[in-house]
Amino acid sequence: MSLLSSLLVLIVVARLLGRVFARFGQPALIGEMLGGILLGPAVLGVIQPTPALAGIAELAVFLVILTAGLEMRFEDIVGAMKGGGLGLAILSFMLPFLGGVAVAQYFEQDAMRTVFLGLCVSITALPVAAKILENMGILNTPIGRYAIATAIINDVAAMLVLGVVLALPPQASFSAVAVSVGTALVKLLALASLVLAMNRGMALLERRGINVQAVPERLIRWFGSEALFGIVVLFVLVFGSVSEALGFHFVIGAFFGALLLDKRHFLASRYTELQLALGSVTGGFLAPVFFAYLGLEFDSDAIRSLDFVLAVLGVSIITKILAGWLGGRLVGMSSREALALGCMLNGRGVMELVVASIAYQKGFIGPSMFSTLVLMGVVTTMLTPWLFNKALRKDALDAYREKWAK
How do residues 147-202 score in pLDDT, each as one tens digit? Predict the structure, then answer.
């Protein structure tokens, strides 16, 4: 099948299944991945993974990361670290990470597979959590605020760790990892310093009465309003290029570059235009291609150990819920609310799949680990709303919603 025909079939099936899953309260990405699994070698074998499709999927990764970065703000990250939020976020990252490391070591995985398993288990996907919370009408409640703050810190921490790990050689021993981490951290610190310096520079200009919005507006007058999307992509690509020059994957720089872009840097109408343009290109085309392509690469035959899969699923679910419950209790939630928070943090979704895809492309993990991580991302994301509804049943959820609506 030709590239265009493959894309046509892939997008249509992925979008249709995505809509079906969305109608039943599940994230659309689950249906999109299952569409790829159905069409790929694992089931029907209609479409095969090709370098051309892989190139399109890599472009999709960039825009998915750009979207995730635009959904966060530096102020949100700083605010999330206040009070007990930082302790909750650290606990919900470290406990699953250590659980993933323990599973990998029990099954005698090498150093890099151990790190990536721990990293993927520790992530909470911000887009998934935000969408579920919004659908349930509890985004502006303590559970919603702590879940979003934790997801933000977890995703940023994951990008930092990913930046360090990707600077290491594949199949490295633990001693080699320890020796190389120092250099990678210095380079990552240089990238972070650039981002922080630019953020503070913009804030300083605003405090001195300089209109930061005038810069994109002037560029739009020169190149036309339709160039806004291209200007933003170009800005983020600069950070991606700096990231690659330092030896990291381009998405690391793209993510932190996107963090710099804020509503305050655009007129309100322009920011809405940007969101619509990005949503059309990413959500309507490239994101479904990316998730469907992950499904194409899923290989059920590569999963040789059912015990390993069950252990990963069990540890990923239990440690995240336990960490959320412990953290929720530490910040003063009731036991049931804290349990509901832990269930909400369980969804990996977008970010975990991006990390798994990058690790697989770079050769840090094999098809067996990759397929296990894809399966883990699908299962945990599907279980999130169901587990949340079990922890906070409808009557309790209605009362909780009404309590915080007042």
Answer: 877 887 777 777 777 777 776 655 555 666 666 666 766 776 777 777 777 777 77
Query: Do residues 322 and 65 touch, judged by C-beta distance below 8 A?
Result: no
Domain assignment present for 4: no
Q: What is the pTM of this model?
A: 0.72
Half-sphere exposure of 310 (CA within 13 A, CB side): 3
Q: 227-233: long-range contacts at Cβ-Cβ below 8 A with a sequence spacing of 24 or more?
A: 228/270, 228/273, 228/274, 228/277, 229/274, 229/277, 229/278, 229/281, 232/66, 232/261, 232/274, 232/278, 233/66
d(CA 81, CA 313): 29
Total domains present in the chain: 1
**CA angle 368–371–376, rounded 5-degree value:** 125
Of 157-161, 209-213, 400-404, the one with minimum mean pLDDT is 209-213
119-141, pLDDT tens digit by residue? Answer: 889 888 776 777 677 667 776 77
Is 328 a member of any domain?
A: yes
> Which of 73-82, 164-173, 243-252 tops mean pLDDT?
243-252
Q: Are 229 and 281 contacting, i.e. CB atoms less than 8 angstroms apart? A: yes
Give me the domain span that covers residue 254.
50-405
DSSP secondary structure, 95-136, as one string: HHHHHHHHHHHHTT--HHHHHHHHHHHH---HHHHHHHHHHH
CA distance 392 to 335: 11
**CATH number of the structural domain spanning residue 82:** 1.20.1530.20
Domain assignment present for residue 42? The answer is no
Q: Is position 55 within any domain?
A: yes
